[in-house]
Amino acid sequence: MQKRENNSMLEGSKKQKVSHKSLTGIQKKELCQKFIDSDEKLTQAELKEMYGIGRSTVSEILAKKDKWLNLNENLILASNKRDHSLLFPKTDEATALWFDAAINAGLTVNGILLQEKILSLLRLLRKKGLKHLVDE
């Protein structure tokens, strides 16, 4: 009899399964802004409830608040829910600048042209002694 009572008490105290929620970059920026905004002075617990996320998630977002507050909302990345950090951000930035210039110049950019440009950029970086930006 004792075991049944203990089992029923355990069943009643089991935690409910929590669904995981991801925020977009724009939502993370908004969360950080609300946290530092002098008018609202929201706590992490209040932000947790407001956004339906865990307190540790709020802490992780606020730890990177400079990144999120400087987020350009017009970028496609701002609407992403996952942060995919680049392995070589400077190389990617240079490629993106070239890509934008090529499009603005009316060039048709295909996979082969893009691959050739990236390879020439990598060769240039190696030649200039910036091998650490290219190699792992």
From TrEMBL:
**MF (Gene Ontology):** DNA binding
Query: Out of the domains of life, which is the source?
Result: Eukaryota
> Per the database record, which ranges form the HTH psq-type domain?
20-69
| Region feature (Disordered) | 1-22
InterPro entries (UniProt xref): HTH_Psq
Q: Where is the signal peptide?
A: none
What Pfam families does its record include? Answer: CENP-B_N
**What is the name attached to this protein's record?**
6767_t:CDS:1
